[in-house]
Each structure stands twice: as C-alpha cells, then as structure tokens.
Design goal:
The chain is of the alpha/beta class and 432 residues long. Helices cover 31% and strands 27% of the residues. The chain binds pyridoxal-5'-phosphate (PLP).
C-alpha cells in the first residue's frame, strides 16, 4: 500500500509507523516531527552485513555514511549491527566519539580536512583517512609525524564512472571536486608519493560514483576499474593494496516511480566482478567496504506536520501550509526532489485533491512538494512526508530562527525521543 513497509493504516483511518499512530505521535511530541522506524533501519543494516557473508565469505564491512543522519543513536545502532562509520567532519567524528563508537572502524572523508580536524581525528584514533588531494597527504604526514604515529590511509579515486539515478556515463569525469583522476596519471603519482612518506601507510583505494543509483552495472564497472588500477600498482610499483572501498549510493523509494534493486544483489554481482579481476591481475581478493547512507535510514523515516492553512487560488493551485518546510527538509528547494505526501489523519481515504504543500519560511521557494495528490486536506490535519530519514535532519537549518524538530524512534508500538526539539534558548545560546 505504501512505499515503506513500516507504514500502515489503523482502525481510526490514521497512518501508523512501526505500530504507532502518527496522529497520536504528533499530539504527544508536537510537530514538525521526524519519526524513524528502528526495525527498518536494523533490517537494512543486516541485509548489507548478510550479503557479505553470503557472497563474499564475510570478507568486508559496510560503513554507515553518517552524513545522511548523524546522531548518537544512529552511531549506536550502526555499532550494534556491526557496521563501521564513514564521517566527513570533525563534528561527525565528535558525535561518534560521544556515542562510544569503536573509532578504528571509522573512515574519515572530505575534500578539505582542516589541520584541526586531522589532529582531532588522529587523537580520536580514527581508523582510516580517505585522502582527497596531495596537500592533504602532505599535511596528514606532517601532523602524524609531529604526533609520532602512522596514519592508515586510502585514496579517493575518480574512476571515470558517473552514475546518478537511472543511467550512468563513463567519461573523464575529471570535473569533480573530489579525489584523484585516474586517466591523467594523478592517482598513480599520488600512490608513488605516499610510498615516500613515513607517517602514512597506504592500505586501501576508494571510489564513490554517485547517489540514488538503481542499477548495479555502474558499481560493477567502477569495481573493475579500481581492480585494474590495483593491478597496475602491483605490476609497476610492486605494492599490493589489499582493501577496496566502493562507496555508497544505493537508491531508495521516494515515490512509486522509484524501483530500487534488493541490496543483496549488489554484493552478489560486485563480488563476482572483483574475484574475476583479482584473479586476472594475480592479486589477493581484497577486503571490501561499502558506504550505504540513504538506503539505511531514508525509507525508515517520515516527517509529520500540522496543517495550519489552506489557500485555494482558482485556476492556479491550492496551497496547504504546514508548520515546517525548508528548515527541516530542504531537498525540494535544492533539487526538486519527489516525495510521497500522505494525509495521515485520513490515510484510509482516497487521494482526490491536488495540492502544493508549502512551508512556513519567508521564501516563495519554500515548498515541500508541488501538485501532489492527497486525501482532502483540512486545517488541523496531520500530514506525513515519506522517506525523509536521509538528508533531512542532517541538512536542517534555523532559517527564520525556527528550532529544529525533535526526532522520535518507534519500535513495535513503542516510541522514544532520540533527538530533542530545539528550544528558543538553544537558538540564542551563542549570541553575545
Ligand atoms: C554521500 C556519500 C556516501 C553515501 O551515499 P548514499 O547515496 O547516501 O548511500 C558514501 N560515501 C561517500 C564518500 C559519500 O560522499
């Protein structure tokens, strides 16, 4: 009935998530409210972990891409489900430390890690630095030398595969701010350079080809290109790199038009390609990391709003105003992202009305969704926007001094707050 398995409709005609009535959640915790279903998150984590066991002798580890939704509870769940963590800033490292995450299972990404962040990461015993450029390599080597340690590193490589949504292109793709290009020889030079430094140890190569990808083929192509590069490094430099990180990007369902493949199929296909290429180049079968983000939390999350007004403009459109908007979900304003909107108060009724759901910020572009079909909306109704678990809270802002919403975790009919709603006092905390 819904794109997300954790959703249902109860006898009152209300939308439920994880066995909880969303209208009751809205009353109890207030709106806007982010709600996450714990079983959906854990099931997805397990399907990734199990796919390594089933198709790759368990010789690998999924890392949760925490930029998707970074908070202590997500770090704890990732750890309990035997995932590592991918972080992109000092703030995400700090969150992991505060959640007692085993830091040796953390990969530190980013195209401009500051000296301060590198120091903090080394002090926090982050497991691996995914080095983006030569300045960073040199800086990391220097700081590691100062501290008398050797940092384990990976290189972010542009494999020349660019995949977004339904298709992918194999091009130069040199025009990306992330990583080292293969075809210019830049990546190879970086490997040679790293071998001359004493305080970095090259362990792994990394690539990440895009996001919200539905095909497995571009991942397979990227994996093959990376193995070819590992073969070149072995043949020409006599160095065997034993770990390969293939990034994230697995697509989820926002609307019925999206058709993700089961996540298991990914390891099935990629492991075949990796094993074949390893044999071709006479390389050991590498340890593999993948970095799913969106697919772990995206479909597990919904956002609840209360309708405060309805503006019918004859022959133009009907605006329905909700008590949140671009401050809690900027993705429509940013990339016209499609979402499914449900009238949670009337989830048993047919969708008959076409409306534009508008936020409450002082921007005409502050829309949650345009021309969406929904059961007739009345002021006071609870609306649910589906698949908002990823890149919503993590991109939230305080524009118009609107406090960030609370986040509630539901599990088999129980609910608990995992992130408190911001208060007005929080908003002025740093004002002098
Ligand atoms: C964003 C990102 C991910 C996660 O991507 P999803 O599309 O959310 O799965 C993984 N790795 C890197 C390096 C990223 O930048």
């Amino acid at each position: 009935m819904f794109v997300n398995d954790c959703l249902n409709v109860n006898e009152k005609g209300h939308l439920t998530i994880g066995g909880c009535d969303t209208v009751e959640l809205a009353e109890k915790y207030g709106t806007p409210l982010y709600v996450l279903d714990e079983n959906t998150i854990r099931d997805t984590c397990r399907s990734y972990v199990n796919s390594f066991k089933k198709y790759y002798n368990g010789n690998g580890m999924p890392l949760y891409a925490s930029k998707t939704l970074s908070c202590k509870e997500m770090c704890r769940i990732a750890n309990e489900e035997n995932l590592g963590l991918d972080v992109v800033s000092g703030g995400e490292i700090y969150t992991a430390v505060q959640a007692d995450f085993p830091m040796e299972k953390v990969h530190f990404h980013g195209n401009n890690k500051t000296a301060e962040e590198i120091r903090f990461a080394l002090d926090s015993k982050v497991g691996k630095f995914v080095v983006d450029n030569l300045y960073e390599l040199e800086l990391l080597n220097e700081i590691a030398k100062e501290k008398g340690v050797v940092a384990n590193i990976s290189f972010r490589i542009k494999p020349g595969v660019d995949a977004h949504t339904h298709n992918f292109i194999r091009t130069g793709q040199i025009d990306s701010k992330f990583g080292f290009a293969l075809e210019t020889g830049e990546a190879f030079e970086a490997v040679k350079k790293a071998l001359t430094y004493d305080n970095v140890a090259l362990k792994e190569l990394h690539c990440h080809i895009g996001s919200q990808i539905f095909d497995i083929e571009p991942f397979v192509t990227a994996a093959e290109i990376m193995l070819d590069f590992m073969g070149k490094i072995k043949d020409e430099l006599n160095v065997v790199i034993t770990e390969l990180n293939l990034g994230g990007g697995f697509g989820i369902m926002y609307t019925e038009d999206d058709e993700p493949v089961p996540y298991e199929n990914y390891m099935e296909k990629v492991s075949e390609a990796v094993k074949a290429k390893a044999q071709e180049h006479n390389l050991p079968v590498p340890y593999i990391y993948i970095e799913p983000g969106r697919s772990i939390v995206g479909e597990a999350g919904i956002t609840l709003y209360t309708v405060g007004g309805k503006k019918i403009i004859p022959d133009v459109r009907t605006y329905v105003s909700v008590d949140g908007g671009m401050t809690d979900n900027i993705r429509y304003a940013l990339y016209q992202s499609a979402y499914t909107v449900v009238n949670a108060s009337k989830a048993d009724k047919e969708a008959t009305e076409i409306v534009t759901v508008a936020g409450k910020c002082c921007e005409s572009g502050d829309l949650v969704q345009e021309h969406t079909k929904i059961a007739e909306v009345e002021v006071g109704d609870t609306l649910a926007v589906l698949s908002t678990g990823a890149y919503n809270y993590s991109m939230a802002s305080n524009y118009n001094r609107i406090p960030r919403p609370a986040m509630v975790m539901v599990n088999n009919g129980e609910s608990r707050v995992i992130i408190k709603r911001e208060s007005y006092e929080d908003l002025v905390r740093n004002d002098l």
